[in-house]
Amino acid sequence: xxxxxxxxxxxxxxxxxxxxxxxxxxxxxxxxxxxxxxxxxxxxxxxxxxxxxxxxxxxxxxxxxxxxxxxxxxxxxxxxxxxxxxxxxxxxxxxxxxxxxxxxxxxxxxxxxxxxxxxxxxxxxxxxxxxxxxxxxxxxxxxxxxxxxxxxx
Length: 153
Known about the structure:
Elements: E1 4-7, H1 13-25, H2 34-49, E2 53-59, E3 62-70, E4 75-81, H3 90-101, E5 105-111, H4 115-123, E6 127-133, E7 140-147
Antiparallel strand pairs: 1-2, 2-3, 3-4, 5-7, 6-7
């Protein structure tokens, strides 16, 4: 049975931060660490205050993935699948869920070195727009946009 995508609960934020960190670490860009975990844990409530809608893929009570959308900005902010759940179509299910909430247009960005992610977004119909350094992290970010066919520009 595929994981159930639902709104995240505050008591799950620690586990969401752990899934986020392990998925990010699986890219090879940054190592998992207590420091990184603490940073992500602290970030979740702050981002929710700033407008995140946070969802999880619940696999029989275990969090398999996290998805953060900023609906007013048509922005897919974070999509991370736990390493042990990768390669099973869960990312595609989360993207389909995102398109239900943002049916006309979606913006996102990802780290240039995370070529697995941006190549996947390109295969899913996202169009590259620009590269820009993120001053807070120093990472070069690739910006993408998806527009539904026939949507008004």
